[in-house]
Amino acid sequence: MNSDANLHPPVLRLITIPLSSRFLKFYGELNGVERCFKNEQKRVADRFYLGSEVLCDDRSRNVPVLLQEFQRELFVQVAQGAIPHDIGENDCGEFSLSVFHAPPGRLNPILLIGESRVKTENFCKSSSSVRLRRPRGAPAARGVYLGYCPKGNKMRKYVAQVLAATSIIGLSTGLVSCREVTLSMTNGISELSSTTSIVDANPPVVTAFLVPAFQSSLLVSEISITATDNLAVTEFLLTESESSPAQNDSRWSPIAPTNHHFSSFGTKTLHAFAKDAAGNVSARKSAGITIAPPPPQSGSPSEPLLLQSNLVYQGAFRIPGGDFGSPQYSGFSYSGTAITYHPGNNSLYMVGHPYHNLVAEVSIPAIKSSGQLSELNTATVLQNFSDITEGNLKNINAGGTPYSSSLHVGGLLVFNGRLIGNVYAYYDAAHNAALSHFVSGLNLSAVGDFQGMIRVGMQNPGFVAGYMATIPPQWQALLGGPAMTGQAGIPIIGRSSHGPAATVFNPDDLGSSVSTVAATPVLGYPIEHPTLGNYGHTDAAIPAGFNMSTQINGAVFPVGSSTVLFFGRQGLGRPCYGQGTSDPSLDRQPVPEYPTVMYCYDPVSAAKGSHGYPYSMIIWAYNANDLVAAKKGQKNIWDVLPYDVWFPVLPIGTGNETMGGVGYDPERQLIYVSQKNGDPGTGYFSGPVIHVFKIQ
């Protein structure tokens, strides 16, 4: 056999592995790949297994291929590792395949050409150029490159492994869509030498762009974008600007947006763009929309909707450190989850450390506006911590039996001279909890005034056992009661709302002689109808909607308005569930010690859980007329949308803006918002800061 290297140059052939497939694909479905050296033809020929049929000679051996998808990254390995061996005339060999697919930029683009299980010095040392081809339409740099290098009078099998989606094909923008490149192989390391075919210069085309002609909410949904490209559309962008966005604009999304947040009412024009892998940006496609509040419901008060400019920041105050009757090193540490305003004392009732769920009362000192904690006044404790459930905190299972795991006081409300509270199970996977609300007195040291636990309505407590708010008198008949209660976004998410929830009830109905009180849901997003966003959505950020990092902990219905406000914390970045890390290069990579867990880039939280860095305070503003329509059955509770979404910036920031409970003083039109862990204090103490807004 002729050993001339020029007669048998190294050959690389691409096998693409589509992420949507569960099999190898290369001009057909494969369950194995092999190459046969055909002596009589003096060339290397490709042969494949199609199904169970072997297309080679009798010495062929089927190589079973195992594919598995792991945390949205594809790993492909041969089930039986074949030891490389010399391939002689008419000899067919097994290939050891290995594929790693990662998002762009997650791994360095490297092409290794070498013999499997053979040391580096045995890599192919031929310096000849080889040509790499990618089938038309195949995704760039996803797959395994298989190759041979000549060695004496035999052919030795080699495997070329691509360890990046950014690829050997494109180290610079404009090359990622090449269907053919020339590689120079030297000592087993491949370097890009020159391109030999056409670079993709064809931009995508937005073929269809549908936007509702009229909508009453500034958060417009039901948007549809369709685009085509000669290769593939990779990203989409919506904007109110006519200018073509830059290739590196941070607003590009790998999925077509279905909603857009406008900043004001009126007649608007929205523009859609698409981009391909080469960075080509389409021409814009435009659509018009008119956004206006809905007309008031029959009999509704003619009161205005609030704008963000109506919510004016006044300042803040601190909460004192100390035990104040709680177990040692507890007090208000890590607290602020549930608060309510007490008009009789111009004070706040607050839940303390989450381990104990005790309640205390604090004064409201003079408010100061400053970005320095040291310049803020500190509240004083008016009533020490007490268990206002009198030992009944856990009795929330059906029939009042104890719940066996972690619980929290979800909300407090001063109403008609009584202190109303509720309790929720933190992680109720079995949906055992059924009861939630209770009644206590305003004197925290009194004993014998507890009444509960009581079921409110027929929903799972994951929709009602949280924040509470009073309803202004002029809206009570329309909504069916004087108060609302809600809960959202808690584990297990299937039992809770994917966004703000509100159920109307009468706290005066709560008492020792009842086990259930009537209640009417007027807002909520069950798992079957996640209108604002799905908890499991991790492909792109959803700043104005709902994602796995969303927290909703307070509600206020300001008097003199048609607005209902919901307060919370929002992750503005791409959602991720896993172990927090401050190293951006580890984002969405497996944790070595726990390969089923991935890292999530979050420099302010190293916890394992839901992440969406960076974070912001968020306020959802709803039109009360929409809630009335839901109460009347004219709308589904999940079809009600906020008319606006606000992102206030607090002067005292932690980077992890976790908002707690909210209290409301209707006489002074002041809203008290708890910022959890806003005050690091000293020693064990990490307490809340209470921020104050005025409605003007």
Biggest β-sheet strands, sense, barrel: 5 strands, antiparallel
Give the fraction of residues assigned to helices.
Answer: under 10%
How many beta strands in the DSSP annotation?
49
CATH architecture annotation of the largest domain: 5 Propeller
Which structural category do the helix and sheet elements fall into? mainly beta
Descriptive overview:
With 696 residues, this protein is an all-beta fold. 2% of the residues lie in helices and 40% in strands. Mean pLDDT is 75; it is low at 1-198. Strands 1, 8, 11, 13 and 14 form a five-stranded antiparallel beta sheet that branches. The longest helix is centred in the last third of the chain and has 8 residues, at 624-631. It is globular, with a radius of gyration of 32 Å.
Helices and strands in order:
Elements: E1 11-16, E2 24-25, E3 29-38, E4 43-50, E5 53-54, E6 65-70, E7 73-78, E8 86-87, E9 92-94, E10 98-100, E11 111-114, E12 129-133, E13 143-151, E14 154-162, E15 180-186, E16 189-195, E17 205-210, E18 214-215, E19 219-220, E20 224-228, E21 233-239, E22 260-261, E23 266-276, E24 285-291, E25 311-318, E26 339-342, E27 347-351, E28 359-363, E29 381-386, E30 407-415, E31 418-425, E32 437-440, E33 451-456, E34 468-470, H1 473-479, E35 483-485, E36 502-505, E37 516-517, E38 520-523, E39 551-556, E40 563-571, E41 576-581, E42 590-591, E43 594-601, E44 608-611, E45 615-623, H2 624-631, E46 644-646, E47 659-665, E48 670-679, E49 687-695
Parallel strand pairs: 18-24, 33-37, 41-43
Antiparallel strand pairs: 1-13, 2-3, 3-4, 3-9, 4-5, 6-7, 7-10, 8-14, 11-14, 12-15, 13-14, 15-16, 17-20, 19-22, 21-23, 23-24, 25-49, 26-27, 27-28, 28-29, 30-31, 31-32, 32-33, 34-35, 35-36, 36-38, 39-40, 40-45, 41-44, 42-43, 45-46, 47-48, 48-49
